[in-house]
Design goal:
Largest interface: A-B, 71 and 71 residues
Largest sheet of chain A: 7 strands, parallel
Distance between the termini of chain A: 57 Å
Helix content of chain A: 40-55%
Strand content of chain A: 15-25%
Structural class of chain A: alpha/beta
Number of strands of chain A: 16
Number of domains of chain A: 2
CATH topology of the largest domain in chain A: Aldehyde Dehydrogenase, Chain A, domain 1
Oligomer: homodimer
Strand order of the largest sheet of chain A: 10-9-11-8-7-12-13
């Protein structure tokens, strides 16, 4: 594939977009369900193509955790199909009236949801993203260009082909779901320049990918960046609750962006809170690192460095910091956090309110696990990811967050004086 | 000023932002009113600095229309002051709960408006933008970095100083309103790279500026780009209404982005509509250009070229196109329009609905002038401009559009299973 042919693919995608933007909900849902069926019917074909990616990964001696993310087994294919069915069952955001009002001159004004147009999704090794992102974009009326990682290229191509075949059978231009058939980096740079053809870039992956996309994109980017998430244990915290929430945030799924990386403890409660916390986490194999105040109480743990405070471990490691006040905790989070998710454990309403007001993270919780910063958990339905860009959508992005709004105005001949 | 000192200015602005983000509404309103008073009290000083810009412009033999935009006379200073007072009277978007719900596990979820952080505004010759943009950003809790054009540098600097003096008197860090004291282009490029310090760039100006900003920015950009706006006169249009709306759209203020540039007419009504339209516009000095169908009816008018169809004249020129169907009109607008503002004049409800659904312009009107695509006219209050970027805010941007939302979650110890 030639480098400049990405422009042709994107242009085809853009030309196909208006048909999808005006497709009615029933037709979209029918197609999403047909896509799910077709994935199940093509299990063998998917496994066969996936095996090519797995063999290549083994040859390159990639890590087991990495190879695990690549695998499309029976269970994962069923999950992808189920995901499409769930998206079919969610309400269609397109055409929804967000608000409406009448002006003194009689003009009736409404803000109405419309698709964004063409969305470019750039992601790494998990091939299920191909289907998940295609389903969410399709339901929200957006054409999508999917550019996955080179390790999953055979899997991504067959998944794209299966989805396109369903579109063709249903008289929808298949270009609305376009899998880029090459993973050449130069071509990705070309893709990121197509500001007239692509409306939004969503990068999903590690810091390297985020920086690359930010550096090269002429298209607006909504980043799904790292989460250095903090739990603050206030002096009035319920200790059992605090231990439970920290444990859940660290251990339930350590490899995700809303897992806890830092615990900040008020020094008036640290002597009572830290020992049971250390016991609970120790039993789960978590390594603790702490500041001096923490080391005095939890003797023998490693010292936490400045670097620790801003590291997304994605692993069974937790940094612990003691503070003399809520203000110090807020300053710490502002300095080292990544504006993703923070939780305060407190019985004091005023402290909770202050914590909420002072922090501009995408999700601020009171007495609850950071793991709830998730589209499904917060009630948005399926999500394409968690935006760390304040513009457009901040936090979990569901179907509504994949739309824009336009103004629709009904008049009876009004002109401006 | 050294090129890299823009980074220092932006860092100071970012450090000052949290104080402003949590300032209460009463205090913000008091400061906005004090700013208005101070502008009026400093009329002489403003005029004196403005005169330096005017003398330089005359020396450079800039056009009269250009020089007119630079002038800060008594009336314009009063308008700026009045603008600040109006912004003070608008509701504060910060802290507003957009929506809230309770999850089955008892978590109480709310989406709450927060400031974006630091906004960079890049604009051209009108110095009043300095005050207008500062007022809107301040009220919405955002720190702002204002980078105006070189022609208005003395005016912009004195306006910035007057606003900062009021901030200091009120114990607010003056860096929340920062006027960049240099208009060096290299420094603008540096500014556009500061993605860790600035959250949003709003460029206001001509196509050259838009392209420059899009080319160089590593920061999300919400463009305020040109408007190639169309009125479609459907076969069922009320002819008097259609003439009135086209005339208003073209003549009432031709130099703005929501003025009409193209009229598309259904051929079944063209013979009845075009002669009275030409008469009304001719009386106002408007030059008409048309396709063959139009030239047959309005003999002697100039032929409209492909270039005409996509030109924002900002002048007393109008292009006219005849079509055989609503579908052809929609195709024409999709091909040549700029997705800014379109209006259909029709008595047929179905045609109106089809026109609305098919077009994704930021404002689509039925039987009303395109000139209503404006924050004040649509009821949003003052606007910082009209966004032509679908992301984040599409169409007029008022105070709410200068905010993001975060999720606030209240629990009672919930963890994820």
């Amino acid at each position: 594939m030639k480098t400049n042919s990405i422009k042709k693919l994107a242009a085809q995608c853009q030309q196909a977009a208006p048909q999808l933007a005006t497709l009615d909900s029933d037709k979209k849902n029918l197609i999403l369900k047909a896509m799910a069926e077709s994935l199940l019917a093509n299990r063998a074909l998917i496994s066969q193509e996936n095996a090519k990616d797995l063999r290549a990964a083994e040859k390159q001696k990639l890590k087991n955790a990495f190879i695990d993310r690549l695998v499309l087994n029976e269970k994962r294919i069923e999950e992808m199909a189920k995901g499409l069915e769930e998206v079919a069952d969610l309400p269609d955001p397109v055409g929804k009236i967000v608000s409406s009002w009448t002006r003194p001159n009689g003009l009736e004004v409404a803000k109405v949801r419309i698709p964004l147009g063409v969305i470019g999704v750039i992601y790494e090794s998990r091939p299920n993203v191909t289907v998940d992102a295609a389903g969410l974009c399709f339901k929200s009326g957006n054409a999508v260009i999917l550019r996955g990682g080179s390790e999953a290229i055979h899997s991504n191509k067959i998944l794209g082909k299966i989805l396109q075949d369903v579109l063709k059978k249903n008289q929808v231009n298949p270009s609305v779901v376009t899998v880029v058939p090459s993973t050449d980096r130069k071509m990705m740079v070309e893709m990121l320049k197509l500001s007239g053809l692509i409306d939004l870039i969503i990068p999903r992956g590690g810091e390297g990918l985020m920086k690359f996309v930010e550096e090269h994109s002429k298209i607006p980017v909504v980043k799904h960046d790292k989460g250095v998430c903090t739990v603050f244990v206030d002096e009035t915290a319920d200790i059992d609750m605090a231990v439970h929430i920290v444990e859940n945030g660290k251990v339930q799924r350590p490899g995700v962006c809303n897992a806890v990386e830092n615990v900040v403890v008020h020094e008036k409660i640290s002597a009572r809170f830290l020992p049971p916390m250390a016991a609970a986490l120790g039993a789960r194999g978590v390594e603790l690192r702490g500041d001096e105040g923490t080391q005095k109480i939890l003797e023998g743990i490693k010292k936490a460095t400045r670097k620790d405070w801003s590291t997304e471990y994605l692993d069974l490691i937790l940094s612990v910091k003691t503070v003399a006040s809520l203000d110090e905790a807020i300053d710490f989070i502002r300095t080292y956090g990544s504006h993703h998710t923070e939780s305060i454990i407190t019985q004091n309403r005023q402290n909770a309110e202050k914590f909420i007001r002072a922090l501009d993270s995408s999700c601020v919780l009171v007495n609850a696990s950071t793991r709830f910063n998730d589209g499904g958990q917060l009630g948005l339905g399926a999500e394409i990811g968690i935006s760390t860009t304040k513009l457009h959508a901040y936090g979990p992005m569901g179907l509504e967050e994949l739309t824009a709004t336009k103004f629709v105005v009904h008049g009876s001949g009004q002109v401006r004086g």
